Amino acid sequence: MNKHDYYEKRAEAFDINKHFDILQTLLKEDLVAKELILRWKEVILSLISKEGYPPPMDITHEIYSLVVGYDSGSFEYRFNIDLANTLLPAMNKLAVELPVREAIKYVDIDNLSIKRAVKNHNNPILIMKSQLFDQPQCINGNHRIFSAYEKGQETITLYYIEDNECIPFLSTRIGRAMYMMNTDLNNTLHLPGKLDTNSLLIERADEWLFINKGSR
Q1: Torsion over CA of 181, 43, 87 and 161, rounded to 10 degrees?
Q2: Model confidence, pTM
Q3: DSSP letter, residue 111
Q4: CB-based contacts of 44: which residues, under 8 Å, 6+ apart?
Q5: Which of these, 14, 61, 165, 170, could form a disulfide with 82 (CB 3.0-4.6 Å)?
């Protein structure tokens, strides 16, 4: 079993209730964070009761799975690369010419698999920079970067997606909610006394997750 299959299998066993129990224990002294966790717990458990976890894979689009390890198990974030491609113009993104020796740092080489290589090179290379992950992640174009590195190519063209810009093309509502919750918690913990609680993403849950609209 390769690395991708191993973590994908672990993601199927992610224990959401354990995840919330751990968060509530760790943050029990922070009343704002505690209230935030309770609100997100209600949202996420509602979504899981309707859609299950993990939700069925969307096979009609190019999807990139990023599996992230937590104390409660591994959670799978899925990114709709086709949708991201269509949203780039509205995001006013400009292409960046990056040295390949820098771009290769964003590629999880152990996770590369020829059988998973998507031949649609019309979709641009995307690097996601988020406060929630240890380092930038290549969510599309891993094989192209690796190939350029092997060939000794000097530069490669790509786009950076930063922080909450990825929310619209997270392909599952559960993944979107988890990302939004973690963003809220991160801001709550790192901006004490400076955070406008009205700016928290939980206040936009209906808008981003279509909770009261019955669609994705």
Answers
A1: 10
A2: 0.85
A3: G
A4: 16, 174, 177, 178, 181
A5: 61
How much of the chain, in percent, has pLDDT values that exceed 70?
Answer: 85
Which run of H or of E encompasses 189?
helix 173-190
Helix (H, G, I), strand (E, B) or coil at 80: strand
Please list the residues that pair with 134 across neighbouring strands: none
Contact of 54 with 12, CB cutoff 8 Å: yes
Angle, helix 31-51 to helix 173-190, in steps of 10 degrees: 180
Question: Per-residue pLDDT tens for 96-120?
Answer: 999 999 999 999 887 676 544 555 5
Q: Which distant-in-sequence residues (6+ apart) come within 8 Å of 68 by Cβ?
A: 74, 75, 76, 77, 133
d(CA 42, CA 36): 10
State the Cα–Cα distance between residues 1 and 8, nearest whole angstrom: 11
Q: What letter would DSSP give residue 153?
A: -
Task: Give the type of residue at 46.
Answer: S
pLDDT digits (tens, 9 = 90+) for 156-171: 999 999 999 999 999 9
The conformation of residue 155, written as its DSSP 8-state character, comes to E
Question: What residue type is 97 in one-letter code?
Answer: E
Q: Which residue has the higher pLDDT, 155 or 66?
A: 155
Report how far residue 9's alpha carbon sits from residue 188's, in angstroms, rounded to the nearest whole number. 32
Q: Give 24 or 54, the one with higher predicted confidence.
A: 24
Phi and psi dihedrals of 19, rounded to 5? -60, -45
DSSP category for residue 62: -
